[in-house]
Each structure stands twice: as structure tokens, then as C-alpha cells.
Specification:
single chain; alpha+beta; Porin; 60s Ribosomal Protein L30, Chain: A; 2 domains; eight-stranded antiparallel barrel; 17% helix; elongated
Length: 495
């Protein structure tokens, strides 16, 4: 059965194995298997940056745990021993492989139930074993380590798994079953299993390594072995054998574990072994040459003398005043293009001369008793002012228009007086429309005053539905909706 399982594991490996001859001759660079760069070299021993071979030795205790005759009997532990040696190859900073040889001995005891147990007494057994295995090694500390963790890296948690072959010789003695011809002498019941293809086992385990120096690691390791064999403990070949030790428990696999202290000798000339080498740490500058060349990347070679965020290399205005907003070329912004930058412009959205801080002068159209040009100018901005439905709350989208109107009004003759008139359409009662139009006119006046317009210049007047832009829209059903919207308005007039 175990031989069939072994073949099941081995056949996919043989089937999918590929010859490396398909790669062709890669001695010439660049080629189809390189990046195309001219600076490409074969990966050989001289190009390595780390050690990746090692030899490990160790030893410790061995204990039969899941067996009819085991190392834990009557509350006591029957200690065994083991020793191992392995040749280790680190394939990446997170994974390695080992070829390992181990030998050892387990000591175990058991007692048969009932009358047989009384006659035989406590049986003692010992198993001498030797095994060859392939072991995979996962470095969990490197696998899970954060690349921004720059703490000293001396401890590592490892996980192991693999398969192997075990040969063993087991002897069992009791007071009855192993007696020869009823004489006082006892003949050991012996099981001699040669190492072969049908003796393979599985193993899993974990270990903690300490990087003692660039040459030596110290490791505490625990491994668990699943033999799939019910005779490793000396209980016999089958549950019905004589003596019937295999009938003590229902298990059909004698499993054991080892606890070892070992040393790993790292081979090679480099300072660091690959199991302690995290390439991502180098990317972040922990151990590579980037640490010795700080400030290698310079953003502004000539600096930024005016501190506007644009390097002098491509700054078209090298003396931008502190606090001025600039464009991508380092030129101070001038939104209304009047020659006064926004930092100093008191009328940012309205052009004006430099001598008047960027605001229009009084030579602009001034409202007098005989002039309506300024009123027309303001009404261009008032047109389309929108309010919330049946409310005096101005919609946010109308703020820009009122801001521009405020700038124009502030530039007019301070002695002029103006009306801000509110009107509605013919829907609803006259009293309701009168009050709503007055509140809307008041809201516009308050907004303009908040933007710097002198309150003495403006007077709010609500006219309800008595001031229709389209008088024919009475009742409102006689007109299309756009005319009714035009009747619901606030506009500017001379007082």
C-alpha cells in the first residue's frame, strides 16, 4: 500500500519534468532568455551576493507517541535519543531543501489487558532506527517580515515538511509471551525492518533559529514522524499476532517525535547566508549602497530661491513675492489680466489700473440722474439670479454673478443711490407674493453689503406681482414657463 502511495507522488514529478536543453545556448548575451540589456552576466558562484549552502548537525530526544507500546507509560517518560546530519541548500530567502540522515533509539513500555497482562507483566521494548529523508524548509520570518522593519534580524521561525525512508530493528520483552519453553530465560521478540521503498514516512515540524555569527546558526527543532507502520513499536505485524500487543489501541500507524538542538555551519565566502538575507530590505535601503549615498536624487539642482514651489531651473519668474499663487512656470497668477497680480489686486475679477490696486477707477461709467449705463452693467450680472423654491435663500450657483455685481457697484459714485427690486409672477396671492419679493430683495442687499458695498447706497423694494417684465402673463397660464421665470426676478434700478 505504501509503495503505491510513493509511486503516486513520484509519477507527476517524472511526467512534468522538462529538459533544460530547450533553452538553447545561453552563453551569449543578450539573448531570448535575458532582458535584452547589454549588462547581463551568467548567474554563477562568483556573482552570488550570499551563502546558500550549509551543513547541519544535531541531536536530542526521541519519543514514541502514537503506538500500542509507547514512551509514555504509567505517568512516566521513557527517553530515547537521536542524532542527525544534513546537507542544506537555500533556494530563496524563504525556502530551502535538505538531504538528511538520522539515527536514534526509542524506549517504550506497555501492558496487555486482562489475564494476558497479568501473566506477561509490563513489557519493555526499544527500537533502533535510521532514516534518510528530503526536507522542505519555509522561513516564516522572511516570508512575513515587513520591508520597513529595520530591526536587527537574529531570530527566525521555520516550518518543515518532507518524506523519507526508515529502517528499524525492534526488540520486545515480557514475562510470558517471550518466555522460551517455560524456562526463566526470555527470548526477545524481534522485528527487523530493512530500509526500502515500502518504508517511507511523512514528517512535519517547526524550529527556531538564532543567527549566532556569519558562520554558525543555532536551532531548537521539533519534528513529528508519521510511519504508517504498526510494527515500529514492537507490537507485532498484525492485530491478531501473538503476542497481541497491536490490539491495545485501534491505531494502525506508530508515530514518534523528536526534539533536537542543532548547529548549522554556513558554507561560502560571503558575509550573509540567504536564509538571513531579504532582498526587499535592500530595495528600501537597509543594507545596500543607497545608505552610503544619501541625497543622490536631487529635485532642484539650483534650488528654489523664491520658495514658490517651482525650481529655479524652469522658473520664469525668479522673484515671486512671498504668498503669491503661481502657475506651473512659477509666474504669479493674475486672474483678470489687468497687470496686478492676485496677491495685490483688490478687485480680482474686474480689471483695473495698477495705480488703483487693480480696481476700476471712477472714470468708468458713473450713475447720475441722466445715465443708466452702470445700471445696465449691473443688471447683466443680476439677470438669472436664482432662489430656493418659495424661499428667499439665494442658490449657490448665483454667488459668482452677485460677486461681480458687487465689484461694479463699489466702483461707482458713492453719492448715487440705487434700488434693488424684487418681483414675482402672477401665481399665488398678492399678499404672499409681495412679502416674498421683499424678502428676496433684502437677501440680495444683505449679500452685496457682505461683499463690501456701502449699505447706504442700496434700498430693497419688493413689488410682488405688480412689476411684471411680461405683463401679458396675467394669469400665468397664458404664457410659456420661460416668461413666468423671467417675471420672478431681482434687478437693479436708479433711485
Amino acid at each position: 500500500m505504501k509503495l503505491n502511495l510513493l509511486l503516486t507522488l513520484a509519477l507527476p514529478i517524472v511526467f512534468y519534468a522538462q529538459s533544460n536543453t530547450s533553452a538553447g545556448n545561453t552563453s551569449d548575451y543578450p539573448n531570448a532568455y535575458s532582458s535584452g540589456s547589454a549588462n547581463v552576466h551568467p548567474f554563477n558562484n562568483s556573482s552570488r551576493m550570499f551563502r546558500d549552502w550549509s551543513v547541519s548537525v544535531g541531536g536530542g530526544g526521541a519519543f514514541l507517541q502514537s503506538a500500542d507500546v509507547n514512551s509514555f507509560y504509567d505517568g512516566k517518560v521513557n527517553f530515547g535519543w537521536n542524532g542527525y546530519v544534513s546537507l542544506d541548500k537555500q533556494i530563496s530567502h524563504t525556502f530551502g531543501m535538505s538531504l538528511q540522515y538520522m539515527m536514534g533509539k526509542t524506549n517504550q513500555k506497555a501492558m496487555l489487558p486482562g489475564a494476558l497482562g497479568v501473566a506477561a507483566g509490563v513489557a519493555t521494548a526499544w527500537t533502533k532506527f535510521h532514516q534518510v529523508s528530503i526536507l522542505g524548509d519555509v522561513n516564516f520570518s522572511n516570508l512575513l517580515r515587513r520591508v520597513d522593519n529595520h530591526s536587527p534580524y537574529r531570530w527566525a521561525l521555520h516550518g518543515y515538511g518532507g518524506v523519507g525512508f526508515v529502517g528499524y530493528n525492534t526488540l520486545l520483552l515480557d514475562n510470558d509471551m517471550s518466555r522460551w519453553n517455560n524456562s526463566p530465560r526470555r527470548i526477545p521478540i524481534e522485528i527487523d525492518q530493512k530500509l526500502g521503498l515500502d518504508t517511507f514516512f511523512y514528517q512535519v515540524g517547526t524550529g527556531v533559529k538564532y543567527n549566532a555569527s556569519k558562520l554558525i546558526d543555532v536551532e531548537l527543532r521539533a519534528m513529528y514522524y508519521i510511519t504508517g507502520d504498526d510494527s515500529f513499536d514492537g507490537g507485532g505485524w498484525t492485530p491478531v499476532a501473538i503476542p497481541p500487543y497491536n490490539a491495545i489501541t485501534a491505531g494502525r500507524s506508530d508515530n514518534y517525535f523528536t526534539v533536537n538542538l542543532g548547529l548549522t555551519f554556513k558554507l561560502g565566502k560571503h558575509d550573509t547566508h540567504l536564509s538571513w538575507y531579504d532582498p526587499l530590505q535592500d530595495v528600501y535601503g537597509r543594507t545596500n549602497a543607497l545608505e552610503s549615498t544619501p541625497n543622490e536624487f536631487v529635485v532642484c539642482e539650483k534650488g528654489d530661491n523664491d520658495n514658490d514651489g517651482v525650481c529655479d531651473d524652469w522658473d520664469r519668474q525668479l522673484d515671486t513675492p512671498a504668498g503669491a499663487r503661481v502657475d506651473g512656470a512659477g509666474v504669479a497668477l493674475d486672474m483678470d489680466l489687468d497687470g496686478v497680480i492676485d496677491l495685490y489686486d483688490k478687485c480680482v475679477t474686474v480689471p483695473g489700473p495698477v495705480e488703483n490696486n487693480g480696481c476700476p477707477t471712477t472714470s468708468s461709467p458713473v450713475v447720475t440722474q441722466n445715465s443708466t449705463s452702470a445700471i445696465d452693467e449691473v443688471n447683466k450680472f443680476f439677470e438669472g439670479i436664482e432662489f430656493e423654491l418659495n424661499s428667499d435663500k439665494i442658490r449657490t450657483k448665483s454667488f459668482d454673478k452677485l460677486n461681480q455685481a458687487a465689484e461694479v457697484i463699489k466702483s461707482l459714485d458713492a453719492n448715487s443711490k440705487f434700488l434693488v427690486i424684487g418681483a414675482t409672477d402672477t401665481r399665488g396671492s398678492a399678499d404672499l407674493n409681495q412679502k416674498l419679493s421683499q424678502r428676496r430683495a433684502d437677501a440680495v442687499v444683505n449679500y452685496l453689503v457682505g461683499k463690501g458695498v456701502n449699505s447706504s447706497v442700496l434700498t430693497a423694494e419688493g413689488r410682488g406681482k405688480t412689476d411684471l417684465k411680461y405683463p401679458e402673463c396675467d394669469p400665468a397660464t397664458k404664457c410659456p414657463e420661460w416668461k413666468n421665470e423671467a417675471n420672478r426676478r431681482v434687478y437693479f434700478a436708479q433711485k
